[in-house]
Design goal:
Mean pLDDT: 89
Cofactor: Mg(2+)
Strand content: 25-35%
Low-confidence stretches: 6-10
Structural class: alpha+beta
Shape: globular
Protein name: NUDIX hydrolase
Order of helices and strands: HEEEEHEEEEEH
Organism: Shinella yambaruensis
GO molecular function, one term: hydrolase activity
Helix content: 10-25%
Strand order of the largest sheet: 4-1-7-6
Distance between the termini: 53 Å
InterPro entries: NUDIX_hydrolase-like_dom_sf, NUDIX_hydrolase_dom
Radius of gyration: 21 Å
Length: 165
């Protein structure tokens, strides 16, 4: 009869629980907040650049995390280059800072508006980016994320800026 009972899940040792608690405390103190950048990149024709990742659904504004020792503008240029072979035209303009609670309780996103953006070469598919390109604002892909659409409404002045991504 005892063999019909499901096995109890293994319990973690006191040492493992203590080490986990110490590490979580360390990360909370050493990395009190994480920050990333997103770019609303417009070309001379007013088209918006979007990317589709392999690991999350939908079309997104290009962007990513700010690494230790990196400025926000360095991260912005790096992400634009990596995700789309994009080159800045006019200096980017910081338009808003958002709390991104879907990622974590400590994540923030800086949104930049980038005008006159050009592409140095087509962005080829790889393991991270499966599609990328410029789109007219009235012809965005159907699965453009809700957050991306909200950011565009805010940028166009048709919605108030939210504090939450």
């Amino acid at each position: 009869m005892d063999q019909d009972k499901p096995a109890a899940p293994p319990t973690r040792s006191r040492l493992t629980r203590l080490a986990t608690r110490v590490l979580h405390g360390y990360f909370a103190l050493s990395r009190g907040m994480t920050m990333g950048v997103r770019a609303a990149c417009f070309d001379e024709a007013g088209r918006l650049f979007l990317v589709r990742h392999s690991y999350v659904p939908g079309w997104h504004l290009p962007g990513g995390g700010i690494e230790r020792g990196e400025t926000a503008l360095e991260a912005l240029a790096k992400e634009m280059r990596e995700e789309g072979n994009l080159v800045l035209g006019a200096p980017p303009r910081l338009v808003h800072v958002y709390f991104n609670r879907q990622t974590s309780r400590r994540d923030h996103v800086l949104l930049y508006r980038c005008e006159g953006v050009t592409q140095s070469a087509p962005r080829l598919k790889d393991r991270e980016i499966v599609e990328a390109g410029f789109f007219a604002l009235d012809a965005l892909p159907a699965d453009t994320t809700a957050a991306t659409r909200r950011r565009l409404e805010e940028l166009a002045g048709r919605a108030l800026f939210s504090d939450v991504w």
